[in-house]
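ARCHIVE CARD
Drawer: 12
Card no.: 0347
Subject: one protein chain, sequence and derived structure
Cross-reference: see card 0346
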Amino acid sequence: MSGSFADNPDGSEGGLIIGDGKIICCFGPKGSGKSVIGRLILNSFPGDRMVIAVNQDDGPYPDPKQSIHLLEGDITSLPSSWPEHLREHREHMTVRCQLDIGSPTDVEDQDHCVGIALRHGHTMVLVHEVGLLAPNDVSKKKIPNVRRLLHANRHRHVSAVFCGPRPNDVN
C-alpha cells in the first residue's frame, strides 16, 4: 500500500493506492473502527468490490444507484460467477454477499463468495468478520477459496481486507 495527502500533478487529490493481491488485516475490540478503516480501503480500490457480511450490520449496503448489489442465499443458490448482469453503466460495481450465519453451510457459503471474487479477478474483498469466515475449528478443506486467496491472490489480482476482534480466533 502507498498513498499521500498531497495533490497529484494532474490536479486530483492524493489518496491511498492499493496494488493487486494485497491482504490487509484490521483487528481490535468492538467499536475501535475496524469496519470504518475496512470501508475506507474498500472505497479506495479502483476495481470491482465484494463485501461479505454475515452479521448484516456493516456496510456498504445495497443501493443500485451506487452500483451496490445484493447477493443472498447459500452455496446451492449463490451464482458461481460474478453477476455481470447487474452491472449498469458504471465502471466498477460492488457486490454485497449477505449470508445467514445460522446456515449449516455458513462457512462454505462465505468461501463460495470468495471463490466468485477469485474467478472474477481484479477485485477487493471486505470481510467484516474474518473469525466467522475462517474460524480455528474449521477444516481447511471447507475453505479452499480462502486458502487460494491467501496463497495465490496476486496471480488473480484479488486483494482483501479482513476485519475481526481477535486474530487468535482465525485459522
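Annotation on reverse: The chain has four helices and eight strands. The first strand starts at residue 2 and ends at 3.
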